[in-house]
Structure formats: structure tokens, C-alpha cells
Specification:
It is a single chain. The protein is 46% helix and 22% strand. It is an alpha/beta fold and 504 residues long. It has 4 domains: 144 residues, 3-Layer(aba) Sandwich (Rossmann fold); 99 residues, Beta-Lactamase (2-Layer Sandwich), CATH 3.30.450.20; 59 residues, Helix Hairpins (Orthogonal Bundle), CATH 1.10.287; 155 residues, 2-Layer Sandwich (Heat Shock Protein 90), CATH 3.30.565.10. The structure holds adenosine-5'-diphosphate.
């Protein structure tokens, strides 16, 4: 029974309260030990201040309470008390005092001692103070523990919140949260960027004041409107400023009773997707158009030959034109197939050491007729016959054919195309120069883009797919090469390809 009461009074639940008695008088020391031990406390004693301090400041088995005599030889009680409390501010200290030192004892309690027992004292007087002291320790330890737990919980909440914040902040989609009154609650940086906002709107700002987008506001209103069933918005397209577009998903978040507390708006930027769709549509219409006109011409000529309208030389001439229009259409289909194969990486390359002059000769041969027709000279005098690299021959023929055919196509009547190829310490430099219409400066960065065509006075009658240079670029990239273009409108254009030795 006594043990149990000692347990209950003790600060660290489940263990005996530990009490240190520091007194130089053996009678008091032993008396206290007996009284306290009989109550079930774990008691240790020290005969002077030094010993008492050493015991009270040891790491193992800390004391819950120290009973210290004020007047001792050597280190006096006041010093002992301050040392003990310095070591453990939570320990309960009680002063044993004689009548002569009563004043000092009162002083000590002002400085933090829990209380004092004036000598002589009865066991009950001592025990009453001890129990009260231990109760205080229990309460203060519990408060401390609760405080630590609370701090730990707060820290965890903080960490959790930071984690959520980091996720939200790193989302590429824009995220906006509003309350049920359509007032702004939260937005991530992607949302700020999407709506070109420098500063986060204040919490509680009406959404209409933060976002000038009537369509989005209408959708949010719809989601939060008081209908029996909350309507979610999924995959609705909205138009943003600067011709940008976003896909909106809006969902309400509900409380336990099912009423909306607010809504979460997620917006994915689909501008590029839309542009791609547009480019695809433009491409399909361009391809249809480009294929339709040669086919219509071929049909016409065939009709005229079949009906006998064109006979003899005229019929032969018509057949020649039919062939050249058919060639144009086939070239276009070749470009498309080449490009899609390169794009899909579906090309099996058969690399071997080859002389580049062979690929140049093949490419020039395909352009000779057209060049002759327009009085254009193709000069390959600057081609180093020894220039060689390890490559797939088809790739190199395609590369030269596209560059040389452009140089002929975009040239002026009677113009010149110069092809040079040099091999310097294993690095190969290829230059294709023409005296043609040139490329305006603002287009230079884009000419290697897929389906990019320049439409101006100089090019409007020239057919093409806008894929030739994109194919060239893909081939150059496949060999870790570099390609650059310089041009002066009205004077001509120079394409330079460099394959560095050792990198290909
Ligand atoms: P295209 O099938 O239209 O010729 P390319 O990808 O080969 O497609 O070229 C893209 C655009 O770059 C062309 O439409 C043309 O306007 C311009 N271009 C390419 N090569 C030359 C050149 N040698 N001289 C002038 N313009 C050129």
C-alpha cells in the first residue's frame, strides 16, 4: 500500500520516487531515510554538500527530490541547491533548516526551493511536504511532456504542410483553391504564371478580382451553385490571354454533411497541343493540296493525250510534264516517309567508311536536269575527293540531295550552286552555297523546324513540304554534327555542316 502511494506521487510513473537526503547530521540523515523508506520511496543519503552534488548530478537514476540541510561544513546548502537545480531545473528541492537559518531558508524558497522543514520536525510534517513536492514534480513533468509532444506534433504538421506545399508548388498544372463564396484561398506558382500575376492575391479576394476570365468564373460558379448534385467540370477548354489555351478541371470539396466548402481548380496549359493540332490540320490540308495539283495536271495531260488533242511532239512534251509532276509528288511522299521514319527512330543505319564525293555525285545527278533547265551551274570543284567518314550512304545522299535541291530550287535563273567538302584531321566540313533568293534574318532560326516554309515574293511559286531541312537536321544530329546557315536576302544562302572527328 505504501509502495503504491510512493509510485503515485512520483513524477516518472511506474517507478519509485527517488529522494536524496544531504545532511551532515547523522541523526537527521538516518531519520529521514527511515521515514521516507518506510513510505516506499527510494532513498539515498549524502553526508556533505560535495557528495550530495556529485550524486544529484550523475547521469544515471536521477532524483525526483532533494532534501538539503542548509548549514553544512564545506559547501553550504545554498550552493548545493543551486548546483542541483542547474543540473535539473525540474527537481524538487526542500531545505532542512534550523531556527538560526530560517531567514536563509525563506530566501532559498524565493530562489526556487520548493519549501523548507524547520528542525525539529515530525515524520508527518516531512511527508506532507514531500508528497506535495512530488505531486508538483509529477504535474510539471507531465506539462513538460505534453508541451514536447505538442511541439513535435506542430513540427510534424509543419513538415506535412511543407511537403504538400512543395508538391503543389512543383506542379506544372496551375492550381487554384477557392472557398464556397468564390473567394481566393490558394494558388501555386504555375497558376500565377498562367494568369501573369506578380503577387499572390490576398486570401479572401473575390476570384473575379484576381482572374479576368469570365468563362472560368462561370464554370466555378456552376460547380459551387446550390444544386442537389455538385457538378464537376472535367476537360473544359478555356481561352487565356495571348492566344493561350488551358484545359480546366474543377471539383468541389465537401464537408461531412455533403455541402461544398469550396472548389479546386486545376488548369493544364494546352497551348502547344492546340498549336500542334493546328499544324497537323495545316499539314494535312497542305499535303492534300500539294498532291492534288500534280495529280490534276497529270490527269489533264493524260486526258488531252488520250483524246488525241496532243499528238506527236506535243504528246511527248505532255508526257514529260506528267513525269516531272509525278516526280514532284513522289518526292513529297518520300520526304514524308523519310521524315516519319527519322522521327520514329526507325532507321537501321548501315555505317561504313565512305567517300563523301560519291554521295555528292548521286545528289547532284538528281538535280542536274532542273539546274540545266534554269541555267544554274552546280560547281563541285571544291570537293576533296579523299574526304571520308563512317556513315550510312543513304543518309549522306539524303543530306546532300536536300541541301543541293534547295540551292537549285531557291536559286535565280542562271545562278550558281557551289558544293565544297573538306576533311581536316578527321573533321569533315561540308558547305553548300547558292546565289539564290536568300532567307530573311528573322526566319533563320526556324528553317530547320518541321513543316516550316517561308512564303514571300521569292518563294511563292516554289513547291515544297517544309520537311527537307528538318530531315537534314535529323541526319546531322544522328552523327553528332552541327549545321548552321548564313544568308543575305537577294544574294544567296550558305549552309555549313560540320562533323567533328572522333564524335561521330
Ligand atoms: P521546302 O520543302 O519548303 O523546301 P525545307 O525544309 O527544305 O522545305 O526548307 C524550309 C524553307 O527554308 C523553305 O521553304 C525555304 O523558304 C527556305 N530555304 C531552304 N533552303 C533555302 C535556300 N537555299 N535558299 C533560300 N531559302 C531556302
Amino acid at each position: 500500500m505504501k509502495e503504491a502511494s510512493a509510485h503515485l506521487e512520483h513524477g516518472t510513473e511506474g517507478e519509485k520516487a527517488r529522494i536524496l537526503v544531504v545532511d551532515d547530521e547523522p541523526g537527521i540523515r538516518d531519520g529521514c531515510r527511515k521515514i521516507l523508506a518506510s513510505e516506499g520511496y527510494a532513498v539515498e543519503v549524502a553526508a556533505d554538500g560535495l557528495d550530495g552534488c556529485a550524486m544529484a548530478t550523475r547521469k544515471q537514476d536521477p532524483f525526483d527530490l532533494a532534501l538539503v540541510d542548509l548549514k553544512m561544513p564545506g559547501m553550504d546548502g545554498i550552493q548545493v541547491l543551486s548546483k542541483i537545480r542547474e543540473h535539473d531545473p525540474e527537481i524538487i528541492t526542500i531545505v532542512i533548516t534550523a531556527y538560526a537559518t530560517l531567514e536563509t531558508a525563506i530566501q532559498a524558497t524565493r530562489q526556487g526551493a520548493y519549501g523548507y522543514v524547520p528542525k525539529p520536525f515530525t515524520p508527518d510534517e516531512l511527508l506532507l511536504l514531500i508528497r506535495k513536492g512530488l505531486e508538483k514534480r509529477r504535474l510539471s513533468l507531465r506539462t513538460k511532456r505534453l508541451q514536447e509532444e505538442r511541439e513535435r506534433d506542430l513540427l510534424e504538421i509543419c513538415r506535412e504542410r511543407n511537403r504538400c506545399r512543395a508538391i503543389i508548388n512543383h506542379m506544372t498544372d496551375a492550381l487554384i483553391v477557392v472557398n464556397r463564396h468564390q473567394q481566393f484561398a490558394l494558388a501555386n506558382p504555375a497558376a500565377m504564371a498562367m494568369f501573369r500575376k506578380q503577387e499572390m492575391p490576398a486570401v479572401g479576394t473575390p476570384l473575379g478580382d484576381c482572374l479576368e476570365n469570365p468563362r472560368l468564373l462561370e464554370l466555378v460558379r456552376g460547380v459551387l451553385s446550390d444544386t442537389d448534385e455538385f457538378r464537376e467540370v472535367t476537360g473544359k477548354e478555356i481561352t487565356l490571354r495571348d492566344n493561350r489555351a488551358a484545359m480546366a478541371n474543377i471539383a468541389p470539396f465537401l464537408d461531412d454533411t455533403g455541402s461544398a466548402l469550396g472548389a479546386v481548380i486545376v488548369l493544364g496549359d494546352i497551348t502547344e497541343l492546340k498549336q500542334l493540332e493546328k499544324a497537323k490540320a495545316a499539314f494535312i490540308s497542305m499535303v492534300s493540296h500539294e498532291l492534288k495539283s500534280p495529280l490534276a495536271a497529270i490527269e489533264n495531260f493524260a486526258e488531252l493525250v488520250l483524246k488525241g488533242t496532243f499528238k506527236g511532239d506535243k504528246a511527248r512534251e505532255a508526257l514529260g510534264r506528267m513525269r516531272s509532276r509525278a516526280e514532284g509528288a513522289r518526292k513529297m511522299i518520300d520526304d514524308l516517309l523519310n521524315f516519319s521514319a527519322l522521327e520514329a527512330g526507325a532507321i537501321a543505319r548501315n555505317k561504313e567508311r565512305m567517300l563523301l564525293k560519291d554521295a555528292i555525285e548521286d545528289a547532284v545527278a538528281t538535280q542536274r536536269d532542273l539546274a540545266k533547265e534554269r541555267g544554274i551551274t552546280i560547281d563541285t570543284g571544291q570537293v576533296d575527293c579523299e574526304a571520308a567518314m563512317s556513315a550510312d550512304r543513304d543518309d549522306m545522299v539524303k543530306l546532300f540531295t536536300n541541301l543541293i535541291s534547295n540551292a537549285v530550287k531557291y536559286n535565280k535563273e542562271g545562278g550558281r550552286v557551289t558544293v565544297s567538302c573538306t576533311d581536316c584531321d578527321g573533321s569533315v566540313e561540308i558547305v553548300v552555297n547558292d546565289t539564290g533568293v536568300g532567307i530573311p534574318r528573322r526566319h533563320l532560326d526556324n528553317v530547320f523546324d518541321e513543316f516550316y516554309r517561308i512564303r514571300n515574293e521569292g518563294t511563292k511559286r516554289i513547291g515544297g513540304t517544309g520537311l527537307g531541312l528538318a530531315i537534314v537536321k535529323k541526319i546531322v544530329d544522328a552523327y553528332y554534327g552541327e549545321i548552321s546557315v548564313e544568308s543575305e536576302p537577294g544574294k544567296g544562302t550558305t549552309f555549313t555542316v560540320l562533323f567533328r572527328g572522333g564524335e561521330r
